[in-house]
Amino acid sequence: MTKGNINVSVENIFPLIKKFLYSDHEIFLRELISNATDATLKLKHITSIGEAKVDYGNPKIEVKIDKDGKKLHIIDQGIGMTAEEVEKYINEVAFSGAEEFLDKYKEAGKDTGIIGHFGLGFYSAFMVAEKVEIITKSYKEEPAAHWTCDGSPEFSLEESDKTDRGTEIILHIAEDSTEFLEEGRIRELLMKYNKFMPIPIKFGTKEINDPDFTPKTTKDKDGKETTEPHKKITVDNIINNPNPAWTKQPADLTDEDYKSFYRELYPMQFEEPLFHIHLNVDYPFNLTGILYFPKMTNDLNLQKDKIQLYQNQVFVTDNVEGIVPEFLTMLRGVIDSPDIPLNVSRSYLQADGNVKKISSYITRKVADKLKSLFNNNREDFEKKWNDIKIVIEYGMLSEEKFFEKADAFALYPSVDGKYYTYDELYNKIKANQTDKDDKLVILYASNKDEQHSYIEAAKAKGYEVLLLDSPIVSHLMQKLESSKENISFARVDADHIDNLIKKEDTSISKLSEDEKTKLDELLKDIVPTEKFTVQLEAMDSDAAPFLITQPEFMRRMKE
Ligand code: ADP
Ligand code: MG
């Protein structure tokens, strides 16, 4: 047995780790399972290239609670370590990683969001354990090693009689961390961080019906049927899906596969997604993932289930702000990329070249998908418009690139339920508005019931009236007015549309002169003339005897 001192410049690093990471203690499990996964995948690699002459088999990772012994075990069947490697990788490498972490942490100041994202690695075990043991046997022909450390810079290293290949980490859970001896708490963490990790993770066992057993049904002499009970067998309780949909090729997945993956991601969501977008790129950065368009409500705050960010199938965060353009944070799904730096602050993230590229790649993919949905099945796209418009309109306002692309598929619905693209709308109005030569006026209503008579009047003159009622559409109109030539939007009850929908002078009045004077008097008293314009018999239709309008700019000012 050897004893030694871990070479650190910080006198005692453990209290520091504990203090700094107080709120993120739970990440220790993610880190240890990540290491177990790495060790297993390394073994897979070296056996596949013939470097290790051992049988890879069907390795799994086991997490085991020993409540009485106050211990938590994480056991893998991976590559293992020799005593020499423990010295090197645990005492030196892992420790320098921990030191580096503390430096970075101090650099990043108080930017709290980052802490849990940083891979502190093996030493995060000391956030919850007062003593940590490593019992490990390498795939190489060498005796197993047993390393023990109680949180001081001292460690001991001795031989062990472990015979099977792999590593067992034993955490002696500290008094203040006994929550990590609760089955429910550990299951919660496994579901949060490890649900899609690539190696099967066993947590306990479960009983299932024996698939090789068919219960017999027998009839007694009265003809009554009885079926014998199903035979149960005990199997490993595997908590993860090692092959989640996003790691597969789109060609190998059906629509149903995508939907069932959505249910796997969001078990509490009963509404089906409208459509999905499979992301897959390996140059100039690496990124896979699946994004889903859920049914949107106008209430942007309602969004609870968010896009999840993974790194090599390990959950990192569901805060993708800065990585995904803001308007797309309303979507759901997963993004998996090893190229997103996680150990830095948000402001750094926004300036990072790779992250910028990732963000614009995602924007482009989403726009392309929307375009192909529109081209391939316009009818279906129109049906979904109401549920997706909020994302698209928001995107058009906030991302110039998306605005340009969205021209091909953004829809403008009419009060009669027709849908136009911008070009279609423009051509239609142009053909109609021969009485206006300076600017094309696009009429719209924001409320079909309240503006009913105005709508009828405009329609009677053959004008198209749009129904634009989403909360951000007035901003979008401004954007269109400034980027398209010679158009302006006017609500059907705005006053500068007079000459569009005013009754022709030649028509015969239905009101007598006396009635007109009385009506005039009456309206003058109740309608503030500095804000509104009153016109008697302004419309072709019989819908109303007079029309009250307001300048478009005044109305927009109020909004
Ligand atoms: P990182 O995983 O980023 O390398 P860690 O601190 O998590 O840093 O681990 C340090 C090193 O210890 C690993 O690189 C690996 O060589 C070794 N190690 C940790 N856990 C295991 C394990 N379960 N099996 C084999 N080697 C391991
Ligand atoms: Mg690690």
Automatic annotation (TrEMBL):
InterPro entries: HATPase_C_sf, HATPase_dom, Heat_shock_protein_90_CS, HSP90_C, Hsp90_fam, Hsp90_N, Ribosomal_Su5_D2-typ_SF. Keywords: ATP-binding, Chaperone, Cytoplasm, Nucleotide-binding, Stress response. Residues 24-177 form the Histidine kinase/HSP90-like ATPase domain. Belongs to the heat shock protein 90 family. One of its GO terms (molecular function) is ATP-dependent protein folding chaperone. It holds the Pfam family HATPase_c_3. CDD domains: HATPase_Hsp90-like. NCBIfam families: PRK05218.1 (NF003555). It comes from Winogradskyella aurantia. The keyword ATP-binding applies. Residues 217-229 have a biased composition (Basic and acidic residues). Gene3D superfamilies: 3.30.230.80, 3.40.50.11260, Heat shock protein 90, C-terminal domain, Histidine kinase-like ATPase, C-terminal domain. Residues 210-229 are annotated as: Disordered. This is Chaperone protein HtpG. ATP binds at residues 31, 35, 76, 81, 96-97, 167, 346.
